[in-house]
């Protein structure tokens, strides 16, 4: 992000902190409890994710030609490769024989031998080896292959479309946010792995936890709230996406410092919600990514949490330090946010109260839900 823009956002954040207020939506917003519990709504949500470009990781997870990684997206296993000409490709990670996963984890490999009966594919997905070929007269070695999915690297991230016949237009999807996301560079920082939360909460309830900081003083009293302000957020919408600035407690110290000496990034956390199911949290030292997916029923979801660091992780102690920060962030989300909202999901499913109310001080939360609703209205 340009320094001018950072300074401008910092000015807005300092003013909110000084006035002990937050950016406000025009009115309160009511959401039916059924949005989190109905089977029909769940089916529509899955359709919405299937139809949307899916950010699945950092470009740094495919650092060189010959690199590969595997991702699980709404129960589907996806294999991503970087081919010899540097292009990113994606495939359903499903063997043509009896549907074993042909690759697991990540690393470097020019070919993938299925662990079940050793059918072998190159990193462009082509079937190049088939032991016991006389058993399969209908299979064409060197012309059959894994089902390819549209894939792209854009703004520092890896993207796929889950429908092989779809067009993947990430530039249009991100609009003016593309350049800003790219400028942070977090997609090119060193990846620190994935941690998975299989949780008894609707996927939207998981996204909601990242959409306001009104809860910091209570839920994160002994963790985030020791460094960040509560109920104080700079909010901006970008089409169906949004950006929140969470000011740190130190931001009021800037009152005594001339603007040209400000180091804005020392005083804020920047949170992006990318439509429909991605959350990015950017600080000076961490590029956290939350990929949040509906699971097999409305009351369950899968969150894949990733983190990247600008530090040099080839130094062991630096790598251990970065992992410790990642562990801390992860356990806070798991033990503070997700544990608490499991109780909300139970209440929503009990049916004793038919709606929730989102305050004027929760503009990000309101914007998430309005974006999801307008997808339903347009595509329904
Ligand atoms: S399932 Fe892959 S070779 Fe048999
Ligand atoms: Fe939280």
Automatic annotation (TrEMBL):
Keywords for this protein: 2Fe-2S, Iron, Iron-sulfur, Metal-binding, Oxidoreductase
Domain Rieske positions: 54-160
Cofactor(s) required, per the database record: Fe cation
PROSITE patterns to which the protein is assigned, alphabetical: RIESKE
Gene Ontology MF: a single term: iron ion binding
InterPro entries in alphabetical order: Rieske_2Fe-2S, Rieske_2Fe-2S_sf, Ring_hydroxy_dOase_asu_C_dom, Rng_hydr_dOase-A
Taxonomy, superkingdom: Bacteria
Alphabetical list of SUPFAM superfamilies matching this protein: Bet v1-like, ISP domain
Claim: Aminoacyl-tRNA synthetase is one of the keywords in the record: no
PANTHER family given in the database record: CHOLINE MONOOXYGENASE, CHLOROPLASTIC
Protein's recorded name: Ribosomal subunit interface protein
